[in-house]
């Protein structure tokens, strides 16, 4: 690493510590990793720059995540909907996926990530995509149509308390609260 990378100003570091679940060390590491995604010239003004989604997805911690596209989409504040991230978007993402984030925050964002069409509720189509993300694209692991129907039926029976055929945020959080492993699995650590 050359010495030309810009430093994070002290007052901003303090502000980010207050606004996120991240420690000082985690913020500094995030700053380093984010600046490595920028060219030398861009590093001079890191806080004004956005990194394209394709670059963000080169991070091994995200590349391995089946929900990587949705994660970029949910945390990106880009008005073009292109999933590009500013440094603050990047910090928000790491904050939610950190060990210190509450499981309420985590489940709130998990819901948004799984809500593929961003309409505020998980319907059969969202659940189908969710299951496909988890099983992978391969023909061998993919569920047959009847297996998929059965699985979605089971998921809805478990979670759709008001029986309207979809899972809303509070129904989702209710299910998540019964699964103790969720918070520890919803994690990205640089
Ligand atoms: Ca939806
Ligand atoms: Ca419902």
TrEMBL record:
Gene Ontology cellular-component terms for this entry are: centrosome; endoplasmic reticulum; filopodium tip; growth cone; lamellipodium; neuronal cell body; nuclear body; perinuclear region of cytoplasm
Tell me the GO BP annotations in alphabetical order.
apoptotic process; cellular response to nerve growth factor stimulus; cellular response to tumor necrosis factor; cytoplasmic microtubule organization; DNA damage response; endomitotic cell cycle; negative regulation of apoptotic process; negative regulation of cell population proliferation
Q: Name one GO molecular function term.
A: calcium-dependent protein kinase inhibitor activity
What SMART domains does its record include? EFh (SM00054)
Q: What is this protein called?
A: Calcium and integrin binding 1
Record bears the keyword Metal-binding:
yes
The organism encoding this protein is Chelonoidis abingdonii
Q: Return the PROSITE patterns for the record.
A: EF_HAND_1 (PS00018), EF_HAND_2 (PS50222)
| Keywords associated with the record | Calcium, Magnesium, Metal-binding, Repeat
Q: Where in this chain does the record put each EF-hand domain?
A: 80-100, 102-137, 147-182
